[in-house]
Amino acid sequence: MLLFFLMLWCTIADSCTVERCEEEMPPEFVQSEPTNTRFLAPVLRAHYRARALEVHFRSWNGNDTQRQLTPWQGELIDDALCHNADWMIVSFADLLAPAVQRRSAHYSVLLMLDYDALCSWLEHGLDNEAYHFDGLYTIVIEQLADRGQLHAVMRQLWNHRIINVVVVVVLARWEADNRGELVAYSYEPYGEGQCGNAEPYEIGRYANNNCTWDRLAGWFPNRLANLHGCSLTVGKVDLRPFSMTRTVGNRTVHYGLEVHIVDTLAARLNFTFRYVRPTDGVKWGILYAANSTGLVGLLQRQGADFGFGSLGFSLNRHTYLRMGVPNHMTQMIMGIPPKRPYSSFEKLFQPFAVDAWLCIALGYAAFALVTLALVTVNRRLAREPSLQHPLYQLWVLLMGGAVGWLRLDSTRLFLIGFILNALVIRTLFQAGLFQRLQSYASLASDLNTLEAINRAGLYYNMFRASLQFYRDNPSVPASRIKLVPNDQRDWDDLFYELSQDRLGGVMVSPIDCIAYYVKRRGKDGVVYVGKDTGFMYNLGFHYPKSTALQRPFDGWILRMHAAGLVYHWSEEYRDNRYWTNAKEDPEPASLRWNQISGGFYLCSALMLLATVVFLGEMVYFRLRTRRLLQQCCGGKTQTRRKKRVFGTP
């Protein structure tokens, strides 16, 4: 309310309606006390109106424990309010107030007494949550001792990554011929040939004799639209398919989904980069207020300008880091082991379901019973010729064999119907069998929900960095969470063990990692996913809290999404043919030995059974013959018994 009444008073005050400079200041304005307060209003009107956001005024006067405005600072604020009351919304706050009590500032005006006051504000008053580091800053310093302090001011601002800044020096004591002119300075850390250079350069002068700036245009250019080949440090961890490396000759080549995005950003924003990795032996790491580990700790300590490597959004990372827009939207899901693989022998029974086999068995049993009944009736009526061994003849016909000459009576007509039916069944079986023999050996387990996993008594294998997403999930018992002890463990080894059901449970992973493994090594063992066990997992670049790179990066990443580039790149690392049994080529592939071996095994088993039966029949025949000989020719010699036995018709 106080702010509202102050602005209302300014809009009706006579002093606000007449913009007339005081009389020309005499040469006696020898920088003893700053007196001109008209210079700030045109700066705000020219550069702080692009967005309908409030302008934050802050002051810092060194070690003043009361932190009160000096009279000159009060007049400066009054004049800025009066001349911009038609559009400007102003926010005042104590610089030492907690960040939760302050609004986040994009437009900032900072009033400083001297260099020491600026350093004190950077150390104690600059809060990551209260300031946009890609916002606009106008810093008014009442006095600086020499140009060396001006250089030090710019270095301090660059160290804190405050880029879009203008420093207005009221009393430039090193300019002996200064007759009351205020000088505005800035710096270009990403300028052409100026990478990382905090050298100040003059952007404007305010002449007290005519109360105008010599130029106001170009004070806040888009310094991040073109980084002019400057080098950025990029933190990364390797995780397929997001970030990978391979050696080509003597050169290490980086590739992967997120690497494609970084390469595109580098081409569009014109910067170079070098990759760094965490040096503490931890990949992603855990974030704390201090002493964080892994990649997130590297970013928190500003050891890299940004980082990636399947870094998903989480509350903890939001607290200590700054997150960009999602560069890839995926799922964190459970990788589940396959069922026991079907052998080639078992595939022989796969063309028909159990109920179909039951129907076929019952149908052919009915055929057999009717055939026996007809044959029995025909024999009793003495119709010739009779059908010998009817059940055996049915089996021969079912297998596609031939029988002897048949007359067109009722029995034969019935058998002809059986032959036609068997032909249809065999055709369907052979068509289904060809497809089944070509299918892959593994099928997904019935572990599509967390409840099913819990009922099966399986463990949830996960890396420590993934624990934050499941720690508070009541459906995932803490007693069944098994952490991977080593962050550097190869994911391919874990997925292979999972495909062989050696982990004793499921594996928590982004679905892209599972899909890429299946594409490359699905022939060694397929890993499936629990369909209803995942949640949305958005990946994005993470930055230190004090960064100005997030906004330009976000803009280009959204353009990549709109153009379909991210989806196109992600499809390069997917291949669902092991999950859907789809063929790469439209033409059918030739059957391999492991696909048809079941038929040979079955044939060999039947041949062995036939051999055993044949030998059994021979043994039985000899035993039966010997018994008959003993009964018929008790005391005769063995030779005569043989002649008599084999000589009879």
From TrEMBL:
Q: Which domain of life is it from?
A: Eukaryota
Q: How does it sit in the membrane?
A: Multi-pass membrane protein
Compartment(s) where it occurs, according to its Swiss-Prot or TrEMBL record? Cell membrane
Q: Which GO terms describe its cellular component?
A: plasma membrane
Its protein name is Ionotropic glutamate receptor L-glutamate and glycine-binding domain-containing protein
Q: Entry's InterPro entries?
A: Glu/Gly-bd, Insect_Ionotropic_Sensory_Rcpt, LBD_receptor
Write one Gene Ontology MF term. Answer: ligand-gated monoatomic ion channel activity
The reply on keyword Cell membrane is yes
Ranges annotated as spanning the membrane = 354-377, 389-408, 414-434, 599-621
Alphabetically ordered keywords of this record: Cell membrane, Glycoprotein, Ion channel, Ion transport, Ligand-gated ion channel, Membrane, Receptor, Signal, Transmembrane, Transmembrane helix, Transport
